[in-house]
Amino acid sequence: MTNRPAPLRSICIVGGGTAGWIAAAMIAHLHPEIAVELVESDDIGTIGVGESTIPPFLQLIAKLGVSESEFVRECQASFKLGIEFRDWLRLGHSYFHPFGAIGMPIEGDFYQLWLRAAHGGYRRQLQDFAPASVMAREGRFVLPHAARRTPVGGAAYALHVDAKRVARFLRRFAEARGVRRTEGIVTDVATRPDGAVDRLILKDGRTVSAEFFIDCSGFRALLIGKTLGVGYTDWSHWLLCDRAIAVQTENVGPPPPYTLAHAQAAGWRWRIPLQHRTGNGHVFSSRHMSDDEATARLLDQVEGELVTDPMPVPFRTGVRDRIWNGNVLSIGLSSGFIEPLESTAIHLIYRGMEFFFRFMPDLAFAPELQAEYNRRMTADYEEIRDFIILHYCTTERDDTPFWRECAAMELPPTLAAKLALFRVNGTLADGVDELFRAVSWQSVMDGMGVRPRTHHPTLDRLPAPDLPGELDRAADSLARAVGQLPPHGRFIAENCAAPIP
């Protein structure tokens, strides 16, 4: 009979905010046998600007058994069908990255069929066949699962949320399931002879011990960085932006069902519409623009009266060399950061906890589990990094030093290979369990003017006597179906309106 190490029985989470309370809620709900204590201080602010999500976030809500409509009301959320990108390829140009499918039931790969038609002179755009894109363009919304048998059933959606309300919602959820919250500032960390973290020492002299620690202390990386000394791989030579200015404004009209990412002279600005306010921000490179200029440009473009003062957020793009080290797991900003262009921050928190449960340790903390966890999470960060770089490196803009530098950068080999393959005939090198699937790569490639030289040769064996006519009928059918949907604002008002604050 083997002597199996004891199972994990106690976890301490350092830091609250979205990351800390997602971690606490997931552990409390999925592993109630583990005692969870979360240490945070009201005196230490949180970033609180990660307010745009992607569809996997809804999996988290469902996994916790939370009512989606209740969550939407409590967090003053609105629905998100994708992202509109303005002025990225060139000034005056825009494109849309939708959630969900593109195309209609037809023999063969839809993108390849559309590409074949486009090479033959067909004029309709790829996004004319994406339900989410057409819904967003018309400002209309319906839950796709309620319209499965219609042309809009292939759409998917995510949420725009108030990050601080999300943290409060999940705190209530976690505390109701036994999570203990300790108010306090961590001033020191004691380690064991083997280098593992033993206990936290708080400002008032109290100590907090646990078998395992989750570092949600944000950019401070109190445990993974400061205490354990785990290094950080910097990606700022690829992603030049290193600061953001965030501000909230009153809504002007009904909230549109999409995020806006509007390219600027030295970066881009976001607009995230919630039910009762709008989140705005300007992400930029401090080498190319000052805080004062970035703030002025943002305030010149936002709509509505200011609800908050502009807040600067410095950051450094990259990833921890080891996201899990010994008895410390880093989640959220402490593990790495990629600018919020594709709204991946909350997803990486959820993903980090999902993988932790997949490689759940016992008190032996097997290095093999840590190594595989780190490999998989690092691959996720690298995939997202490459996808974000794609938006910059394919630009035709040369009107500012920032955009000229983006267009001339030497690409990561993984992205360079993906672009080269796609340019042949639209083939994508798919990985395992990737976040961004073919529709995302095809949409951004097409939006940024990356068009394959030809289509896949297998399509030449398929009969296509009236491919343009068939495509037209599909696009027209989708447009008619979208025209019958309620406006996004009315859908919220009738189904999940938040109380007026």
From TrEMBL:
<feature type="binding site">
    <location>
        <begin position="16"/>
        <end position="19"/>
    </location>
    <ligand>
        <name>FAD</name>
    </ligand>
</feature>
<dbReference type="InterPro" id="IPR050816">
    <property type="entry name" value="Flavin-dep_Halogenase_NPB"/>
</dbReference>
<feature type="binding site">
    <location>
        <position position="333"/>
    </location>
    <ligand>
        <name>FAD</name>
    </ligand>
</feature>
<protein>
    <submittedName>
        <fullName>Tryptophan halogenase</fullName>
    </submittedName>
</protein>
<keyword id="KW-0285">Flavoprotein</keyword>
<dbReference type="InterPro" id="IPR036188">
    <property type="entry name" value="FAD/NAD-bd_sf"/>
</dbReference>
<dbReference type="InterPro" id="IPR033856">
    <property type="entry name" value="Trp_halogen"/>
</dbReference>
<dbReference type="Pfam" id="PF04820">
    <property type="entry name" value="Trp_halogenase"/>
</dbReference>
<feature type="binding site">
    <location>
        <position position="80"/>
    </location>
    <ligand>
        <name>7-chloro-L-tryptophan</name>
    </ligand>
</feature>
<dbReference type="InterPro" id="IPR006905">
    <property type="entry name" value="Flavin_halogenase"/>
</dbReference>
<feature type="binding site">
    <location>
        <position position="346"/>
    </location>
    <ligand>
        <name>L-tryptophan</name>
    </ligand>
</feature>
<keyword id="KW-0274">FAD</keyword>
<feature type="binding site">
    <location>
        <position position="186"/>
    </location>
    <ligand>
        <name>FAD</name>
    </ligand>
</feature>
<keyword id="KW-0547">Nucleotide-binding</keyword>
<feature type="active site">
    <location>
        <position position="80"/>
    </location>
</feature>
<dbReference type="GO" id="GO:0000166">
    <property type="term" value="F:nucleotide binding"/>
</dbReference>
<dbReference type="GO" id="GO:0004497">
    <property type="term" value="F:monooxygenase activity"/>
</dbReference>
<feature type="binding site">
    <location>
        <position position="342"/>
    </location>
    <ligand>
        <name>L-tryptophan</name>
    </ligand>
</feature>
